[in-house]
């Protein structure tokens, strides 16, 4: 069976422009799925939300910790996506001292929805959110998907087990 291709969306990101005395040295830069994944080997970590406990305490930090190992295994980049805007994703990465894993804001939940991984978290006041998962893609094709069990709207919580960096490393080294 052929690998599933990642859905086409536009991610609204912010990038640093000339570092000068400007009050805001960032500009908007739209990136498409192809801009990020085409011709590259990418790990994508999807989390329910920036600054949430499991995402901040273990999920994202595990991928940051193992970034060098991924590069040694031929991975071109590691991205983290959440249904948060570029400003929130930037501040979250900064607060955790994440500088290797790149933030990929999905503020409108377009990617999460097209992946079939969007859930309602309105019982917690969070609206639409991504389910917790990680994937390995080669040239925009999903080669492995590690989705946490119990996919449903309004879960009590979504622990990190299957989508952990340790499981991704096991997959890539076997």
Automatic annotation (TrEMBL):
Molecular function GO labels: thioredoxin peroxidase activity
Reactions catalysed according to its record: a hydroperoxide + 2 glutathione = an alcohol + glutathione disulfide + H2O
Domain of life (superkingdom): Bacteria
Domain Thioredoxin: residue ranges: 1-174
Annotated signal sequence range: none
EC number: 1.11.1.27
Pfam assignment, any one: Redoxin
InterPro entries: PRX5-like, Redoxin, Thioredoxin-like_sf, Thioredoxin_domain
Active site per database record: 55 (cysteine sulfenic acid (-soh) intermediate)
Function of the protein: Thiol-specific peroxidase that catalyzes the reduction of hydrogen peroxide and organic hydroperoxides to water and alcohols, respectively. Plays a role in cell protection against oxidative stress by detoxifying peroxides.
PANTHER family according to UniProt: PEROXIREDOXIN, PEROXIREDOXIN-5, MITOCHONDRIAL
This protein's name: Glutathione-dependent peroxiredoxin
Organism of this sequence: Tritonibacter litoralis
Source taxonomy: Bacteria, Pseudomonadati, Pseudomonadota, Alphaproteobacteria, Rhodobacterales
